[in-house]
Design brief:
By secondary structure, the protein is of the alpha/beta class. 48% of the residues lie in helices and 18% in strands. The protein has a single domain, classed as Rossmann fold (3-Layer(aba) Sandwich), CATH 3.40.50. The longest helix has 17 residues, at 177-193. The structure holds 2'-deoxycytidine-5'-monophosphate (DC).
Length: 233
Amino acid sequence: MTFKTKDIIIAFDGHSSCGKSTVAKAVAKELGYTYVDSGAMYRMITLMAMREGLINGDNINTAKLKARLKDISVSFKKNNSGGQDSFLDDENVESQIRSIEVSDKVSYISELDFVRTKLVELQQEMGRQKRIVMDGRDIGTVVFPNAELKIFMTASAKVRAQRRYDELIKKGHMVSFEEVLENIEKRDFIDQNREISPLKKAKDAIVLDNSNLSREEQLEWVLDILRKKFSNE
Ligand code: DC
């Protein structure tokens, strides 16, 4: 079922691996909106920094990274299976940016003010025409503080780690459940405690705890709000 809504911006924020992108993508598909995975943009910058030796442990060569950001391009292109892939300059890096190594470093990159300024600008540009669903950590608070619909998603760390572990194993990544849980707990801590744009619920966001909800139930939950508040019919 597709239905028409007013032209709006939908912001999904929340903890790592709580299924934001799955619901956000499904909602975008239902509405014929563009979906943007803002986390993929931070992941692409992280991958570039790792490849170019600009990150050592949690130590970052900020001068070089700053210079490199001036000429880097991060973008998305539709793929043949109905989804979209992440492009760092002209290279498809969709698989590499999901690795546990990138997940392990991305919080250090995403706490840098100049990285955030650059990516927030790009994200705001993408939403200029509205009709966009974007997920991340600061979408409803910083990127689109006037978004018409803001959803803050969460689930327990164990539930999120199990989902992420299953996903990584399915894709052939060699990881242990403990490693994934540890990574999620570490990212939660950094995301919530960083100085710039920490993960927090926007005052006007609606909370969706999906610990015990199927994908279908989550989509229906969002569509129900859209029908009640933003229907154009
Ligand atoms: O959504 P994700 O797990 O792919 O995001 C990867 C990392 O990027 C996450 O640890 C936090 C960071 N991030 C951010 O700081 N701001 C966003 N809008 C999106 C992601």
